[in-house]
Structure formats: structure tokens, C-alpha cells
Amino acid sequence: MDTELQIPEDRAALEAKLAEMIREYLTSQYKFRVEDCAAADAVLVFARKDDTYVPLLAELWHSGKVKHIVISGGLGKDSGPLKVTGTPEADFLAVLLLQAGVPAEAMKMIDRKATNGIQNSQNGLTLLAEHAIFPERMILFGCPDNLLRLAAFHQAIAERECTHVPDFASIKYEFLAVPWLATVDQKTLFDTMRRLRDCPHETPPAAAQFDLPAVILELMAKLRI
Known about the structure:
Helix content: 40-55%
Oligomer: single chain
Strand content: 5-15%
């Protein structure tokens, strides 16, 4: 990414340039293919009502890249029609994964209570500890519009809240995301970067560690985004 801000002055062109910068930055933060991930002891899934999760997760297990699939997701603001049936997001994904040939034994750690990313991490780590699974390597899986922020919260929780499980503080992570960044709209890209920028003011303040590109922050300020 260029370090100097050389851009046209009309707003539409500035916004298009900013969207491309954000897309490039986010793409650099994630893995989008199973083959690019190292083998891990477990994957924690930040569940959504999104069947595009299934092919990558099924491939993770069938390829032998992970031993355990931890799925966390209850009923939240983005659960849509699942609220009508009372089906937790974790169960929605687990059923689809069963249909894709992933055995129930691989998904024995299912959290149906979490309604936000912090609870996803807290409950997911609790399930691992209850099953005496202490990963050396772990994959965090979700959508690229929020996975980087959720991953920062997760690592902070593992280090600060799980002091009774010292092994959790030394887990090595990779981030695997659903590959739809190439087609996502400008509004989603702007919302994603705004939340990353403002993340240090949330609780826990995990994202203070982010080194967001100055050129993106400068242009966001210029556009008052």
C-alpha cells in the first residue's frame, strides 16, 4: 500500500479510493483458503446465520487441519429468521456441517448462549477448558467485516481473563475468513474500519494493539467517516 496520500479531490473519488485501501488492508490480515492455514488443534467459529461458512469449515475438518470445531452463537441482533424458530446460530451451522459430512464428535463443543463477540470468546475458551483441550495453535473463523476486531478481543480475553489456564495466553492464532471482501459494498468497508478505529474505546480495550494504516485514518478524517 502506498504510504503517501495522493488522491483526487471530489468526494466520490475519495470514497472509492478509501474503500479500495480498506479492502486491501483487510485482505492482508486474513487467510481465505484452508490450504494457506497451518494445522491447528481447534477452530473457534464466531457463528452467524450464514451458510457460506460451511464449505470452508467442512474443508478444514476433512483436510485434517483441525481436530475440534468450537461453534459459538446464540440468538442475537443479526440472527434474522432464526429468532422465529428459536434456533441458535451455532445449531444452524452445526446442522449444515453434519450434512457436509463433519461428524458430531468433532463439534461436541457448542455454545448456544453467546450474543456478542466477547461472549463467543469467553464461552468458547470455557468449553475448551471444560473438555481439557489446551490448544497450541488455534484458528479463529468468521466474516472479514468483524473478525479482526473479534480476534483482538479474543486474544485479550485469553490473556487477561483466563489466568487460571496459563496455556491460553500462549496460543498461536491464524484468522480464516469467508472470502467475500472482493464484492462487499463501500458502506460495509467503512463501517468495518470505523469500528476498528474506535475499538480501543470499547470493553475490553483489546484493539489498542492495532496498527491501522495512517493513510486510511487520514482519509477517513478528511471525509469525516
